[in-house]
Amino acid sequence: MVYITLAAGIALLLIGGDVLVRGAVSLAVKLDIPTLVIGLTIVAFGTSAPELVISLRAALAGSPGISIGNVVGSNIANIFLVLGVPALIAATNCDQPFIKRNTLYVIGASLLFIWLCQLGPLSFWHGAILFGLMVAFLVESGRRAAQRSDAATVIGEEAIELIDGVSGVPHRNWTIAAFLAIGLISLPIGAQLTVSAASSIAMSFGVSEAAVGLTLIALGTSLPELATTVAAALRGHCGLALGNVLGSNLFNILAIMGLTAMVVPVPVPDVIKSVDVWIMLAAALAITPFVLRRRSINWKIGLVFVSCYLLYISFVFAPRMSQIASASAN
């Protein structure tokens, strides 16, 4: 039953985040907000809504392992899985505009986050620093985009499709209101179900909440990115994958953890502080050679990435597996 609750919670998060983005985009268009602003703010924040509500709900419920594990685990999954799987279908190009800059930003944000984690619980001022950098990134992205005629290179083809109505955004006022209401209701309910189910699973299997956050919840909230990149690969637009992953990882660290820490102090579990954040950094560094040399991520590299993710999952649960083996032997 607890797994059904977990699946239902994640489903509500994904559905709620999706309809909230569509409704918010339609409302912004009706209010004559520029397309670029919509892409850089509403779409970017909306697609990260599941991770945000999970982290906030978990932190408020006294489950910091789930709160931080969700962000760190999602960033690891985004690179090794969300980039790896599409590369098995078609090579992912690494020559898009601003890719080098955004890669360096993700690495820098990862290093800053690791340093803040070592200082102790993430406090309001730590969160303010992270979120302030997110705002600075959005401002700079807007400035750069204003200098280019092709806004899609900054806000992504997916965002353009959403705003143009290709992906089914509502147009009537009552449908916009319905989308917003469904999204705003589904997200907190989904977060409550997910966090409570994840805590129950951790207790029943004797694993830490951090382990569940790093794996089950992180993978669940990364499903939209995975679905998007696989669909792009099937359509021959693999270049979108890397930009979407970098943007998602940057938002996870700066916006989600920033906002969460500004609302409630977030203690950092020792295992995440000493191990998982460094794996997150290693994942970001793994794509750097391809970005700097403008080399494609082919199926061989994709296979390595997917294998790394499977090894990571095994590593997270290795202590519990060894305990079970010892118990069976006795």
How is this structure best described in words?
With 330 residues, the protein is an all-alpha fold. The chain has one domain: A middle domain of Talin 1, CATH 1.20.1420. Helix content is 82%, strand content 0%. It contains 16 helices and no strands. The two termini are 30 Å apart.
Question: Could you outline the blueprint of secondary structure elements for this entry?
Answer:
Blueprint: H1 2-30, H2 35-47, H3 49-60, H4 64-82, H5 84-89, H6 99-118, H7 124-146, H8 152-155, H9 157-164, H10 173-205, H11 209-221, H12 223-234, H13 239-263, H14 270-286, H15 288-292, H16 299-329
Helix pairs in contact: 1-2, 1-10, 2-7, 3-4, 3-10, 3-13, 4-11, 4-13, 4-14, 4-16, 6-13, 6-14, 7-13, 10-11, 12-13
Low-confidence segments: 149-166
Largest sheet: none
Q: Helicity range of the residues?
A: over 70%
Tally of DSSP helical segments: 16
CATH class category label: Mainly Alpha
Oligomer state equals single chain
Q: Can you tell me the number of structural domains?
A: 1
CATH fold naming: A middle domain of Talin 1
| Mean pLDDT over the full residue set | 79
Order of helices and strands: HHHHHHHHHHHHHHHH
Q: Give the overall form.
A: globular
Spatial extent as radius of gyration: 19 Å
Tell me the β content. Answer: under 5%
